[in-house]
Amino acid sequence: MERNKVAVNITEKKEYKVIALTGSLEYGILKDVKAELQNLPLHTGLGYVIDLQKVINIDSTGFGMIVNFAKKVSVQGKKIVIIVVDDFIRNLFAISQCDKVFPIVTSEDEARNMIKSEWTGELSINEY
After folding, report:
1. What is the pLDDT of residue 41?
2. CATH number of 6-116: 3.30.750.24, 3.40.50.300, 3.90.226.10, 3.40.30.10?
3. In Å, how far from its chain's centre is CA 51?
4. Which residues of the chain have pLDDT under 50?
5. Would you state the pLDDT for residue 77?
6. Which runs of consecutive H residues, i.e. helices, occur in 9-123?
7. How far is CA 25 from the centre of its chain?
8. Per DSSP, what are the bridge partners of residue 24?
9. Distance between CA 7 and CA 109 in Å, rounded?
10. Predicted model pTM
11. What does the alpha-carbon distance between residue 128 and residue 122 come to, in Å, rounded to a whole number?
């Protein structure tokens, strides 16, 4: 995948939807992905898993897109869990304090368990 491209694949599971992103979540290339997330019907069981396993970079625009989607989801009483396997990106989530708002896991199995459990972050999405 070229660095200046991003792809999204949405998969329906029994209790949640997986939003798998691939590429770079950076300023200037997220317009279509933002639109797709904004227009996504919020009809799912417990929530959403945002899969960033194939993301090679993320900037503040990418974080903003995730946070805005999370706000939309939280109004519906749904949960979000984020899969991050890259250490650099995981550190960015820690620096930005996103890990205090969303559970950050390393696999879909962990995400599924987290979706089903009660997880309370140190910060609410509205405090973030």
Report:
1. 78
2. 3.30.750.24
3. 6
4. 1-2
5. 82
6. 31-38, 60-75, 87-95, 108-116
7. 11
8. 57
9. 22
10. 0.88
11. 10
